[in-house]
Specification:
Structural class: alpha+beta
CATH architecture of the largest domain: Up-down Bundle
Number of domains: 2
Largest sheet: 5 strands, mixed
Length: 437
Amino acid sequence: MRRAALCALVGLALAFPAASWAHATLIRTSPSFQQRLQRSPRFVQLRFDQSVKAFPNAITVYTAKGHVVSGTVRPAKDPRVVTTPLQPLARGAYTVRWRVVSADSHVVSGVFTFGVRMRAPPATAAFGASGPTTREHIVRWLYFLALALVGGGLGFRLLILRGPLPAEVERRFYQVVGAGAIGAIEIGILAFLLRAEDALQLPFGNFLYGDLSPIATLRFGRAFVVMTLGFALVCALLFLAWLTEKRILLWSAFLLSIGLASGLSLSGHSAVDSGSSWLSELADWVHLAAASLWVGGLVQLAFVIWPLAPELRRTAFLRFSRLATVLIAVLLGAGTYLSILRLPHLRDLWTVGYGQVLLVKLGLVSLALLWGAVHHFVVRPALERGAVPFAGLPRSLIGESAVGVAILLVAAILVESKPPPQPLPPPRASHAAAPQR
């Protein structure tokens, strides 16, 4: 009886649309999102899909320096339309922030930008939007860690441990990789919400009814949508691989997860900053993919193989040591190229914030290289001779994993930092002859 009542309630909820309870949705603006205008508009107009209540300050238009250039909202015959007049606008970028009350009494808010005789900034760079916060740094770091757990874990299983595994080891492998795949979805959603909340500058309760269209249409927003849907597919492939034990499904999940990491490269500094190109995007993706394989492999070696599969320790360590050598070389090569591209001068390493964060990352990478060198030149030859590894090796692997995770944290801060501007090209000398008197 209780189950039947529950089904009836669900059926009623699905049968009757929630239009009467839904909050108002912005369907059109004038000027439109990030529109570039050749002349000053006379007003800003918003059109919603239902009647709204607009107070006199429902729309505020700011210059890039924060000066208000809009008037009070004019009453309109159509209750779905809200309009405010504008002063004559000079050349520049402008931010529109709006707040109305929908029929369900919820405050609906949003922000968008437009430009007059110049390109409009993205919504995340609108006037009043805050820069990256500590929360965003931590969330980005957790996202990098999730990518490493799923991509690096799958790479370790397919490239290092090629044969069947004991049931307990297989179970731990799926737990770690599955946590990474689910984390990539959940943490990715949280990262998008934090970025949008900072742009809208709203308390979280009001933010839930904010209009996210201007942010969802940016490179960042499109990458978020694709990566979220992609990692949902990775989760499905992992679940099917666990049920059917088909290796092809693991390969599909591995290639998809590594490919999805390119979404960060296509929406970050390597894609939008001055001097960026397809080569910088490729180098950034290769850098992130190599880091994910290295850190994720270390986690599998330290927390899955070493405690649960003593018979596989020697083989796994030797194979991973060879792979790690290649990964470190790729990391250094791609990282060096990106550093030279983003830092025009050597002094930028210690004079600008981006360079200072990069110095911290280089210090951690040097520590990781030293740690890995000990494993490669001391532990590996001993294992190849059949010697018993020293008792502290498990703690040493955990320590190297911790350094790798710390590098991901610094990388997360680095991604959110702004590189110094590229130097302007020198003006071309004029070849025109000076007039003679």
